[in-house]
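tokens incoming
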């Protein structure tokens, strides 16, 4: 039983440490049995506690000793069967209750349900738009590349040719159908006026092109900003999900730790209770046995009386005090399940019992389902 062993921890020395090292070596560890509780011994104790679900403290106390030595340790004399059985089970180590196991399982299930890493929804589109915005050349107006200018140029050229032809036609009518240098000059002037009007339109066309350039840039930027807002909203939703998961996980963790802490406290309290009870029962049984032996010895010293002058002596009957002491001791043995020891002790004093005393002892044995003569 654990009560047989001394608690030892880091820095302890002596026979108890050697006994601990030997017990650990029998479980597969490789320690020098030098009686010094050092780092290696503490690491072995810690490892043994962890593997066997014992309290993790690196100290060889009642729980660790009990589990190491197992049920092979016999209960000391005087300890009841119930106390010894309960203590033996407790010394095998802490076993989580169903409530603790359920709390642990809930925590582990939540931990496994962690949201995955965030995956952007619009990353490719945003990257393409960014490249398009950042790579746009600065505004430069080139009429030859302006479609609007090209349409105006074609129109003014057509109108210039038409004006020139009209001028030449009117001149030919005045000269009887013959071209003149004046008519040609007038036609060229009419054509030139149309082209001059086209040139006057270039600043207006350039400004219109600039507005189109800026409008296209603003449209790209708005598109980029809209997608970025959608991306931010998606990330916020994911982040909220992760936050809720963390909060729920923390609640589950505290619940599991709280349940285990309460469970371990109950286990430690039960272990202490039955350890103290076993010690008390053992001390009571030892004290009763000593008292009975002492009183029996005192009674036997005054038993030698002559009977009718024959010179023969007889054993005196048990005194009431000795009988009561013997009854307590026998009762302690019976309560501890040691019926053989109880029977042997009762048989030793059976011949000195009065009929009334014998009936009391027979009743006592019968209470535990035993026969005093067996």
């Amino acid at each position: 039983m654990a009560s047989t062993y001394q608690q030892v921890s880091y820095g302890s020395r002596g026979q108890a440490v050697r006994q601990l090292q030997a017990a650990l070596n029998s479980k597969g560890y490789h320690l020098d049995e030098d009686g010094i509780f050092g780092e290696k011994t503490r690491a072995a104790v810690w490892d043994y506690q962890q593997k066997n679900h014992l309290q993790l403290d690196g100290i060889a106390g009642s729980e660790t000793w009990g589990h190491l030595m197992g049920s092979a340790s016999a209960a000391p004399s005087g300890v009841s069967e119930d106390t010894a059985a309960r203590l033996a089970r407790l010394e095998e180590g802490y076993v989580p209750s169903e409530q603790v196991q359920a709390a642990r399982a809930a925590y582990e299930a939540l931990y496994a349900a962690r949201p995955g890493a965030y995956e952007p929804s619009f990353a490719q589109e945003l990257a393409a738009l960014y490249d398009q915005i950042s790579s746009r050349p600065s505004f430069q107006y080139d009429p030859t590349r302006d479609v609007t200018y090209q349409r105006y140029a074609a129109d003014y050229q057509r109108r210039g040719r038409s004006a020139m032809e009209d001028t030449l036609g009117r001149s030919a009518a005045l000269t009887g159908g013959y071209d003149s240098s004046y008519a040609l000059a007038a036609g060229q002037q009419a054509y030139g006026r149309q082209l001059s009007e086209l040139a006057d339109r270039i600043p207006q066309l350039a400004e219109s092109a600039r507005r189109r350039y800026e409008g296209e840039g603003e449209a790209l930027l708005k598109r980029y900003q809209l997608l970025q807002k959608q991306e931010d909203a998606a990330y916020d939703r994911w982040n909220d999900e992760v936050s809720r998961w963390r909060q729920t996980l923390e609640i589950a963790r505290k619940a599991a730790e709280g349940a285990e802490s309460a469970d371990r406290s109950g286990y430690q309290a039960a272990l202490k209770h039955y350890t103290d009870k076993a010690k008390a029962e053992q001390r009571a049984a030892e004290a009763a046995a000593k008292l009975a032996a002492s009183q029996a010895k005192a009674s036997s010293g005054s038993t030698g009386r002559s009977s009718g002058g024959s010179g023969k002596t007889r054993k005196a009957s048990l005194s009431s005090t000795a009988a009561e002491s013997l009854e307590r001791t026998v009762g302690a043995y019976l309560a501890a399940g040691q019926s053989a020891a109880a029977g042997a002790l009762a048989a030793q004093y059976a011949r000195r019992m009065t009929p009334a005393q014998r009936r009391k002892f027979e009743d006592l044995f019968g209470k535990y389902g035993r026969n005093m003569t067996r």
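note: DSSP finds twelve helices and no strands in the chain.
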